[in-house]
Every structure is written in C-alpha cells, then in structure tokens.
C-alpha cells in the first residue's frame, strides 16, 4: 500500500461536480481506500458541503451520500480545518462528487492508500 493524495486540494463549486474518478487502466492499483477528507472554509461565515462517493456507473444519491449539508466553520475564526476519517473503497469507475452552498470558498482535499 502506498499513501496517495486523491484530491490534493480543489475549490468546490456551488453545484454537484466530480473531483476524482478512479481510472479503469491504473497499472498495479486495483483499489484505493480513502482514509480521510478535509475541508477548509476561506469565507467569513459558515458554509455547508455535500459529498457523495459514487459507485462505477452510478449517480449521486442518498444511498452514496457521505456528508449532506455538513457545516464547515470559517478558518478565519481560528477554527482548524475539519478532518474526517473515512474508509470508502474506490474501484475503477468510482468517483467522488461534491458541492458547497457557495462557490469558490471551500477547499476539499482527500487522501488514501493504493492497493494492488
């Protein structure tokens, strides 16, 4: 297993978008176990995020929602960026989709481990 920055840091949009898709042709890697996710809110007010881990060929739905309108406090208030321990397994075609209630103010990063 090798540590892997799945999403090194991406600004979330105000509508659901895909931030990572596990490639089908990924030599030596059969799956990635997502071990953690962090959010940084650069705005001066609370923001909310929604995150889905979508299976291959699927669509975002309540069944694959990991966070639904999760409140992220502003970093400017001295709050550390919230970190969440995850254990989702990504296989070829799986994706991470997310959105915030306001565009370009919340940064999403995710990490994991690759497995052959």
Stretches where pLDDT is under 50 for at least 5 consecutive residues are none
SS summary, helix count:
0
Might you state the CATH topology name? Jelly Rolls
**Proportion of β residues?**
over 45%
- What strand line-up does the widest sheet have? 1-8-3-6
Roughly how many Å is the radius of gyration?
Answer: 14 Å
- Please tell me the total number of domains: 1
What general form does the structure show? globular
The CATH superfamily name is Nucleoplasmin core domain
CATH architecture: Sandwich
Structure write-up:
By secondary structure, the protein is mostly beta strands. It has a single domain, classed as Jelly Rolls (Sandwich), CATH 2.60.120. It is 0% helix and 57% strand. It contains no helices and eight strands. The protein has strands at residues 2-11, 17-21, 31-41, 47-54, 65-72, 83-90, 95-100, 106-115. A four-stranded antiparallel sheet has the order 1-8-3-6, with no helix packed on it. A four-stranded antiparallel sheet has the order 2-7-4-5, with no helix packed on it. The chain is globular. 22% of the residues are buried.
List strands and helices in order, with pairings:
Blueprint: E1 2-11, E2 17-21, E3 31-41, E4 47-54, E5 65-72, E6 83-90, E7 95-100, E8 106-115
Antiparallel strand pairs: 1-8, 2-7, 3-6, 3-8, 4-5, 4-7
């Amino acid at each position: 297993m090798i540590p892997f920055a799945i999403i090194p840091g991406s600004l979330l949009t105000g509508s659901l978008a895909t931030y990572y898709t596990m490639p089908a042709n990924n030599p030596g890697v059969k799956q990635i176990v997502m071990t953690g996710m962090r959010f940084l809110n650069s705005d001066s007010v609370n923001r909310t995020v929604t995150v889905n881990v979508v299976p291959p060929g699927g669509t975002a739905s309540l069944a694959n929602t990991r966070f639904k309108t999760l409140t992220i406090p502003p970093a400017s208030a001295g709050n550390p960026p919230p970190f969440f321990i995850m254990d989702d397994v990504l296989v070829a075609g799986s994706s991470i989709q997310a959105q915030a209630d306001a565009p370009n103010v919340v940064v999403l990063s995710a990490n994991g481990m690759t497995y052959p």
